[in-house]
Design brief:
The chain has a domain of 291 residues. It is globular. The strands form three sheets. Strands 1, 2, 7, 8, 9, 10, 11, 12, 13, 14 and 17 form an eleven-stranded antiparallel sheet that branches. A four-stranded antiparallel sheet has the order 3-16-4-15. A hairpin with a 5-residue loop joins β5 and β6. By secondary structure, it is α+β, with helices and mostly antiparallel strands.
Length: 451
């Protein structure tokens, strides 16, 4: 009898968690039409019950960096932009002059400007989205090589692949969340998800889920929308999705983790989408394979691994639902949030947010003061001494002779011109080389530890 209880209780608990887990998105039927139709529009904002989504024609929509901390409300009022979305991961450094700067973990290129990640291993081991000079889109793996700097008009590196039906990851691909066990666990738990996706018609889709999703739910959502490839820019805490005049960003949007604490991380930049002054000329379907790669498992061992991963995913989803709708409401009755509004949790709260190490130093100091009660009650806190809006390392600027000679012309190797890369590679600076705007910054010391 005792042995039956020892076996039955865990099995019953797992069954309960699987039963209360939210349903998985349904995959599309074979030959099903696109969920959305572009109708020739270069940009469409398409929210639905599950996601906020953007449908983008990269030939007519330009991507660029919008630099600066806490500029979300300014972005919402920017009528010259189409939208703002999360950029890829970043790291912070203190330069030789004691100035706090932000550096992307992957490589970024917008037009003739390039920001290279200082962690070259991380840049090589992650995924990228590239927009060629004819407007076609590539979802690939690796860093911004000299040949890619010529081939792509825009390049967003440092991404994490959910799946890519058009290209198998290389052996050195590691992804963004394989550094530590803690990161891997957070990656698997239900979170608000940002996705960059490639549609079957060659257009880009950028979406943010309305609710927390596990890894398998995120993959199923992308598949249900017919995306050929889907990449994550970052975790939920850095998610930004702003459409000027229509969808903003507030504390309510950021209150994704319970306990009354806003769980968003302040970010030093976002991606700004705007109309191109001169559209790129080309076909979106150029270079896009028409046949998807295998989606299922290839042998019994892989099928067993897939099934096991899906069961763990459903248990995590059910556990998250139990915490959100069962444990947390009771915990809030006992440990009510305190402080200004309901944005800071009680020190005794079991659901209290950990310190956010990705925030700027000045904001971390303010958060410690709030937690310790050092700020006077009822008085406005002193202004924050945040880094300047352009507190990023200076970009490299490609020399004019390294840029495409004309509209719709890429100097890099292509399927039609595989030999052109060798002729032009010499004009592109290697990673770390001196260019028109040199970095001239020695390897920075680490950030000072928190007090």
């Amino acid at each position: 009898m005792k042995r039956a209880w020892l076996i039955g209780l865990p099995v019953g608990a797992l069954t309960l968690l699987i039963a209360i887990a939210p349903p998985m998105p349904q995959a599309p039927r074979a030959g099903a039409p696109l969920l959305t139709r572009a109708d020739g529009q270069p940009f469409r904002y398409l929210p639905d019950r599950d996601t906020y989504a953007l449908d983008i024609d990269p030939r007519q929509v330009q991507l660029d960096l919008f630099e600066g901390w806490d500029r979300e409300q300014e972005a919402y009022a920017d009528q010259g932009a189409l939208a703002f979305v999360s950029g890829p991961m970043y790291e912070r450094h203190v330069d030789a002059d004691g100035r706090e700067i932000s550096v992307p973990l992957g490589d970024l290129k917008f037009g003739e400007r390039i920001w290279r990640g200082r962690n070259r291993t991380a840049a090589r081991q992650r995924a990228f989205v590239g927009i060629r000079h004819d407007g076609s889109v590539a979802f690939g793996y690796g860093e911004l090589s000299p040949e890619r700097a010529q081939r792509f008009e825009s390049f967003i590196g440092g991404l994490h692949s959910i799946y890519n039906d058009l290209e198998q990851p290389p052996s050195d691909y590691r992804g963004a969340y394989s550094i530590s066990m803690g990161q891997q666990i957070r990656y698997l738990l239900p979170r608000i998800r940002m996705l960059y996706g490639l549609r079957p018609d060659g257009r880009l889709e950028v979406l943010m889920s309305r609710d927390g999703l596990t890894l398998e739910q995120t993959r199923a959502l992308a598949r249900s929308r017919g995306l050929r490839a889907a990449y994550l820019p970052d975790h939920a805490s850095k998610s930004r999705f702003i459409v000027p005049g229509q969808k903003g960003f507030s504390d309510a949007d950021a209150n994704w983790i319970s306990g009354g604490a806003t769980s968003f991380v302040h970010v030093p930049y976002m991606l700004r989408l705007s109309r191109r002054a001169v559209p790129l000329q080309g076909s979106l379907l150029a270079g896009l394979a028409l046949a998807s790669g295998p989606v299922g498992c290839g042998n019994p061992f892989q099928c067993g691994q897939t099934l096991g991963g899906q069961l763990v995913d459903r248990v995590l989803a059910g556990f998250n639902r139990l915490m959100e709708q069962g444990v947390e409401p009771v915990a809030r009755l006992i440990w009510a949030p305190r402080g200004k509004g309901t944005q800071r949790p009680s020190v005794r709260s079991p659901l209290r947010e950990p310190p956010i190490s990705a925030d700027p130093i000045a904001l971390q100091a303010r958060q410690r003061q709030e937690d310790s009660g050092q700020l006077p009650a009822g008085e406005a806190p002193p202004p924050l001494d945040l880094p300047a809006d352009n507190a990023m390392a200076a970009p490299e600027v490609l020399p004019p002779d390294a840029l495409p000679a004309g509209e719709g012309t890429a100097l890099g190797a292509t399927a039609d011109n595989p030999g052109s890369a060798a002729e032009a590679t010499s004009a592109i600076p290697e990673a770390g080389a001196d260019v028109a705007t040199p970095l001239a910054v020695p390897p920075p010391p680490p950030l000072p530890p928190p007090n």
